[in-house]
Amino acid sequence: MRAILITSTVAALIAVAACSRGEETGSTNGGEAPATGNAVAPGAPVAPADPKAAYEARHEGFEEIGDHFKAINRELKGGSPSIETIRTQAAGLAQKAAQIPGWFPAGTGPEAGTKTRAKAEIWTNNQDFQQRAQTLGQASAAFAQAAQGGDLAAVQAALPALGDSCKQCHDRYRGPER
Questions:
Q1: How many alpha carbons lie under 13 Å from residue 103 in its C-beta half-sphere?
Q2: What homologous superfamily does CATH list for 2-12+50-173?
Q3: Does the model's pTM come out above 0.85?
Q4: Which of 15, 144, 148, 168 would give a disulfide with 94, using CB separation of 3.0 to 4.6 Å?
Q5: Running along the chain, 178 residues long, what does each successive block of 10 average in pLDDT?
């Protein structure tokens, strides 16, 4: 049973690590705990008149999501994880994940000429994209709820669904690094 838990945790961490890269690699805050400020209000779209501002807002949001994931992973991989740190990072992650649907207003994709890894399919198949973003929002909320409960086993059990929801969207809507 312990081997299964360890194997599933490692698999989930790999999926989460893949999700934690944001739109581009690199951290904006030197690997410190991420800021929890809002680049965009939850669910509020960025004005489509400025594709560069929309890109920058979503890029920063994904960087923060990645920073939250990295902090959670560090704790879970450590010898004695701090549930308080996981709880704080999970809450920040859930807050940012809920904002993702508003980060992709019409006219802010590759057609705008902005350097982005976001594929055009986000806008041409927006209903599916929105559903996948909602799934991530739900998985991150469930993960945050598990962390709030303080049970590390419950946190680890919620991790695979979170990692899978990132992967499902990245596989379809995120382009390769440029």
A1: 23
A2: Cytochrome c/b562 (1.20.120.10)
A3: no
A4: 144
A5: 36 39 38 39 54 93 96 93 97 97 92 90 96 96 97 95 94 90
